[in-house]
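Methods: example folding runs. The two proteins below were folded one after another, and each record is reproduced exactly as written to the output file, sequence line first and structure-token line second.
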Amino acid sequence: MRKATRTVAAAFGIVAGLAGLEHGLFEILQGNARPAGLMFPSMGPPCVPQEMWNACEPAMTILPYLLITGLLAVILGLLILIWSAAFIGRKHGGLVLIILSITLLLFGGGIFPPLIGLVGGLAGTRINKPLPARPASRITYLAASYGPGHW
């Protein structure tokens, strides 16, 4: 069993879950306000996106209220966190993490946390899979083609 792949997938998923939780908490703090559009800063006022290095943590939602969006982001962040820590090694563990990450993207979990979750999910799809065959190096190829008596 390849433990490194599972560890990498779990670590990426845990980071994505924690960051999704953070986005959700910032959205809950904004209350039952409406987002300005599909994309919005998850940190509300007094944060000014043009002045902050993190652009006030951009997020997107398909829902009209930030409170509901924040609650869903917190729930999805917890699900991603638990799934990554405990269940990523299951048969379709990576695929479930990918689906949860896409859902997190649609419901206020930010832009980068779902991308991190997607990377973890892709790594999770490779758990217990054989390593790809390593192509022979050029030196090995040349040595095999000329042989010991060719010189």
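Second run, written to the same file directly after the first:
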Amino acid sequence: MALGTYDRTPPPFFRQGPSALTKLVFFAALALFLMVADLRFEFARPLRAGIATALLPVQRTLNVPVQLWRNASDYLQGLDAALARDKAAERQSTELAEKAASAARLAQENERLRALLDMRPTLKVRSIAAGVLYEGADPFSRKLFIDRGAAQGVVAGAPVVTPQGVLGQVTRVFPLSSQVTLIVDKDFAIPVLNARTQARAAAFGGAGGDALELRFLTPNADVKEGDEMITSGVDGVYPAQLSVARVTAVERHAESGFARVLLEPSARIDGVRQVLVLEPVGLQQPQPQEPVPPPVPPKPADRPAKGSRK
């Protein structure tokens, strides 16, 4: 091939146009001119408005995931805050309920203590205030334990009362506690007096549930529903005029030798917290003193017989 047939034009890579500095100066001047012209004449405002209008759907579409993420984050944060407020409100409600229950218990305890203190001046026997520790574990007996014992002066057989009436009697005494048998126990018996007729009788526990029973009454005995049974004070244990029970049912059968009379205790049996332990009346009675023998006169000294010599 002849040399004259070769293309002697350089390839595009090696072609040189304006220099880079020239391009930089040109485009910098053009940009400055356009900014000044736009600031002065605002000729690019329609162009910008059209471009913004065209790009608005794209911008909104691209902003949807970001907005969903923000909404989800706000929802979760609001949910956490709501749960925290709900827990705080529930905790506060529980605390208020506990305080209200405690206040109610304190009010009831204060009423019981005031009733006990008001009852003390009417009693002519010595008394000891005591608190109930727990009830006996035997399901076939009705007993409870109090926090006063021999160290505080409690003796066996001491009556135990509440502001409503007789609750029971101390049956066992320990150094720092005592066992109280309730009046509804099957082994309990107490002499009573009908406040209406002044007739004496004997009330026994174990009649079923929280009830007592008057036994050994004839079918024509003068007793009716609503009669109040009180202590007579002649047994040497219970002071007089303490309420024991009230008659709730009277069953008279001609073929039976005795009437069946059911009683409801005056004192509340369950849920008792404070009681009053009384000293038995018999222990406060003056004990008979043994007679003191008269003094023996001294024996006269032996005198010598007459005519005897010393």
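Comment on the second run: The helical segments are 20-41, 45-119, 281-284.
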